[in-house]
Design brief:
This protein is an alpha+beta fold. 46% of the residues lie in helices and 15% in strands. It contains 20 helices and 16 strands. An eight-stranded mixed beta sheet has the order 1-5-6-11-10-9-7-8, sandwiched between helices. Strands 13-12-14-15-16 form a five-stranded mixed beta sheet, sandwiched between helices. Strands 2-4-3 form a three-stranded antiparallel beta sheet. Helix 2 runs antiparallel to helix 9, helix 5 runs parallel beside helix 7 and helix 6 packs antiparallel against helix 7. It is flat. It starts with a helix and ends with a helix.
Length: 550
């Protein structure tokens, strides 16, 4: 290679490195702008906005609520399912709805890059070779043939042609400042387009779990099992929404789904009965069940009602807010959800869906109400309780509770007979619910003096020991008490009794078990009640019997 060619090659690499440095600097500036602390040498890490740590003793209440769900749901023949936390994005866009805020604005979505594919963000790579590699991967189908990738591939080829042309001129005497600038701009453009290429499928953290349960039903051929299949789940969900009381970006749900089998009204009623039994076992105060029927997607039922509703809303459009005006076109049923004060009188005068149900849906709704009455489940009808997507049908319900202010719903559910088929499965009936566990916990904490689940706690015992002989006895006592299900704190080092009792109080222990040489010799252990200072002597067996009787 001649000196001139070497110099040209060196100039090319300098331009490429400058292009990459500019792109990297742009990315770094954006990061620092989003979070000024990112450039600091040290920073104190905190939970991301909209998430939080659940700490003891609160986690004890969470565990008791979840254990209650396990116990109640299994008595109704439900089995637990644990679906993954992330799924293909399309699963949610199909099930939740492409036009919903959840899919359009709130989901946490990212590209699942296979590890064996090129990393176009690394410090040093050949731009021409990188474009050739990604073109080959695209042609072989190893990266998604999405509409975005198709457009990027076309522009990459255009940029590569420009880049190659400038490279050729760099080897001649005609290469000048204009070519250098063109070379730099084209290199930057290629780097950014390569970074924008979708190398793997798009996946999302789950914003809800019904779609995941339906996907599992299809994937594992659960339609071959005795129908219906009853499943329940609990765990975290993720939505990028404005945090407020009882609502977080990482939040928790407890839910149940019944898939397959008939759409008998008794199924709807028993599911609701199970839900109300669970809330009763939790001691949730002030629960109110609201129900409605939204019919099914037919001209003589919901579709006809929606057309009538849209026509009536058009007449009062200028009196509605911007959101409601937009929903007239996209989904008129959502206008009924409006909480804006000046719209309430308008909504009250709109047609009601109960007056426009087909005969079959009217009969089904009447039977659901009768089944609830047979089970002693108290309800109220709410004609504004709707669901916006076509696969939702007939029964819808919601439960509200005390202590949550205006956003007082702790559970919502309904029938969705078309969802499994929409996701590629066989025609299958479906109904389910999701409980907002965060809100449920808040409501229970607000009424903790009246809730058995918040007040119930196994007695906690702090063992205060002194002396080598007493330590061996203390270890045996701790093991016996723990085997019996009590919470026990055994200090690892000897403390004077005064200090030990002070520490027991700070830890919130209910009792202190005092073990010294006298207790070991006599076989009579001293149990002190920390709340009132009273104490009694008990043998090991009598101690267990006493604590078990509390």
């Amino acid at each position: 290679m001649s000196d001139q060619e070497k110099a040209a090659k060196r100039a090319q690499w300098e331009e490429i490195n400058r292009a990459k440095a500019a792109a990297k600097q742009k990315d770094q500036s954006a990061t620092e702008k989003a979070d000024p602390r990112a450039s600091a040498t040290q920073k104190q890490f905190q939970a991301i906005r909209g998430s939080r740590d659940l700490l003891p003793p609160d986690t004890g209440l969470w565990n008791r609520v979840e254990q209650t769900a396990h116990e109640v749901f299994t008595t109704y023949g439900f089995g637990e399912i644990r679906p993954p936390i992330f799924e293909e994005t399309e699963l949610f866009s199909r099930s939740v709805g492409e036009d919903t805020d959840i899919v359009g604005k709130e989901m946490y979505t990212f590209e699942d890059r296979p590890s064996q594919l090129p990393d176009f963000g690394r410090e040093s790579f050949d731009l021409v070779k990188a474009v050739e590699d990604v073109t080959e991967l695209f042609e072989r189908g190893q990266i998604p043939h999405s509409s975005l990738n198709s457009v990027l591939m076309k522009f990459l080829q255009i940029d590569l042609d420009k880049f190659s042309a400038v490279q050729k001129r760099a080897q001649s005497n005609d290469y000048g400042a204009k070519d250098s600038e063109q070379y730099r701009k084209t290199a930057i453009s290629i780097v950014h387009r390569l970074r924008d290429i979708q190398l793997g499928p798009r996946v999302s953290l789950r914003p809800e779990a019904t779609a995941s349960v339906c996907r599992a039903y299809i994937e594992h051929n659960m339609q071959q099992l005795p129908q219906p299949v009853k499943l329940y789940y609990m765990g975290p969900m993720f939505r990028r929404e404005r945090p407020q009381k009882g609502r977080y970006r990482q939040f928790y749900q407890i839910g149940a789904e019944i898939l397959g089998g008939p759409d008998a009204p008794a199924i709807d009623a028993e599911l609701i009965e199970m839900l109300m039994t669970f809330f009763d076992k939790c001691g949730l105060q002030g629960t109110e069940l609201s129900i409605n029927s939204i019919g099914h997607a037919a001209d003589n039922c919901r579709r006809g009602y929606v057309a009538l509703l849209r026509a009536e809303l058009e007449k009062v459009k200028d009196k509605l807010g911007a959101d409601s005006q937009r929903r007239i076109e996209t989904n008129p049923l959502r206008v009924l959800d409006s909480k804006i004060e000046h719209e309430q009188a308008i909504i009250e005068n709109l047609p009601r869906i109960a007056d426009h149900l087909c005969d079959e849906c009217k009969t089904h709704y009447a039977a659901v109400k009768h089944e609830l009455e047979l089970r002693g489940v108290i309800y109220r009808e709410n004609w504004r309780l709707v669901r916006g997507l076509d696969y939702y049908m007939r029964t819808t319900f919601e439960i509200t509770a005390q202590g949550l202010g205006s956003q007082n719903a702790v559970c919502g559910g309904g029938r969705y007979d078309g969802l499994v088929e929409l996701l590629g499965g066989p025609p299958a009936k479906g109904i389910g619910f999701a409980i907002g566990e965060d809100r449920l916990i808040l409501s229970l904490q607000d009424a903790k003096s009246q809730s058995p689940i918040t007040s119930h706690q196994s007695p906690s015992v702090y063992i205060a020991w002194m002396g080598e002989r007493a330590y061996a006895t203390a270890i045996r006592a701790a093991k016996s008490l723990r085997n019996a299900g009590f919470r026990v704190e055994l200090p690892p080092t000897e403390l004077k009794f005064g200090k030990a009792l002070e520490r027991a109080s700070k830890l919130g222990s209910r009792f202190a078990l005092i073990l010294g040489d006298n207790e070991v010799t006599d076989g009579q252990w001293t149990l002190k009640t920390l709340a009132d200072g009273s104490q009694q002597k008990l043998t090991e067996q009598a101690l267990l019997e006493y604590l078990n009787g509390l």
